[in-house]
Amino acid sequence: MHDSKPMTSRERVKAAFEGRPVDRVPKFDQTVFSHVATKVMGRPVLTGGGGLRHSEAAARFAGKHALNEWRARYYEDFLGFELHMKYDMIRHPWRERRTPTKKIDENTYLFGDPDGAWFLNKFDPESDNWHSVDDWLRDAGLIDGLEVLRTELEQKDASYQGPEWDEFQQELLDDYVELRRRLPDHGIAADCAYCCISMYDPAWMQLLHEDAELVGRDLDRQADIACLYIEKLAAVGVDVVFGGGDIALNTGPAYAPDLVRDITAPRVRRIRDFAEKHGVYYVFKTDGNTWPIGEYLFGTEHGASHGYSEIDYNAGMRLDELHDKFPHLTLIGNVDSAQILSRGTVEDVRRHSREVLEAGAGIRHIYGISNSVMPETPVENFLAMHEVHDSFRVPEPAKV
After folding, report:
1. Assign residue 183 a region: left if phi > 0, alpha if psi is -120 to 50, beta otherwise?
2. pLDDT in tens, 93-131
3. Is the C-alpha dihedral spanning 102, 104, 109, 112 positive or negative?
4. What is the mean pLDDT of residues 256-262?
5. Separation between Cα atoms, residue 72 and residue 229, nearest integer Å
């Protein structure tokens, strides 16, 4: 029988990573777009999505006073919503921590060096999307972009002297100090341990196949900064770090499995080992069908991540099958946010949510959506997935 005394949220999250019984399945949604959260709260709130990031970029461009006002509102909105939903694990949503170089119009900003590495971001209010519409590599075209990228990485090789800690990183750390101060009994997670290449960028994909060693050295630098983040975040009480990066599509890996094995997996293992040394759980997150590369990311020989997030139900990833294949892996999410949650009926959502919870079986599972609660998601569907969770009882005895 479970202990009659309720666990704290932080205890619940730690138990999920350690394979111990929980009094209820812990829950976590990595991003709920502000459109949906506003309907839940009955007032306009900033919680996540393109509108959040665009508003922060505008505030940063306007200056320190505007940014301080933005931060005050953000904390009130974001934490108010997270506590209202009774999440067990909380992390800051994807933020726009960079300051634009130039404002093109109300929705478009230029970042970086106009004469060097730059990118152009645009906000689409209708879709709530804040995305890059052009950058220095795309502007150069595939052939020239490939050579520009190769030259940049070679220059980094020549000048690299170790990871640097700058104002960008310090600001993120300060935000987690504040989050832990406000939420002493919650599990706290941070996105800080990315180690990947852009599978959406043709220049990166071409370079990976032409010069995997050069790309690998860039991943080494990414692993260096990931470890520096982990060391500092562990010291302020962060429990979980998310890393990895998109590496697969619904049809399978974005590039050859042997490249994942030889280029990605060794760096993932290094970051995982460093996190473990500092008492932090490391989670690899990616959408898509990862079955062909799962052994390299989650198997004990190659990757052995502590957890797996953005588990894509729509791409054929099922919790019971993952439990069977990787029994020591903690699974985060799996409610299908791309199709069922955003387009299904309330009963579709209820049936699917029960399926996910039963497949997770109350062991090494943190319940939530597969990626993001998109702005078009009916609020009734979002509330239904949480109602199913709140009424779910962990099987006794739980699997161990």
Report:
1. beta
2. 999 999 999 999 999 999 999 998 899 999 999 889 999
3. negative
4. 94
5. 25
Collapsed DSSP state (helix, strand, coil) of residue 108:
strand
State pTM to two decimals.
0.93
* Cis amide leading into 114 (omega within 30): no
Fold of 9-42+142-391: TIM Barrel (3.20.20)
Cα(115)–Cα(270) distance, integer angstroms: 36
DSSP of 3-18: -SSPPPHHHHHHHHHH
Domain boundaries defined on the chain: 9-42+142-391
Two tokens, residue 27: 């829950």
Q: How many residues does the chain have?
A: 400
Tokens standing for residue 138:
């795309």
DSSP notation for 238-251:
--EEEEE---EETT
Distance (Å, whole) CA 128 – CA 34: 9
25 pLDDT exceeds 80?
Answer: yes
Q: Under a CB-based contact definition with an 8 Å cutoff, are residues 246 and 197 in contact?
A: no
Which amino acid does the sequence have at 221?
A: R
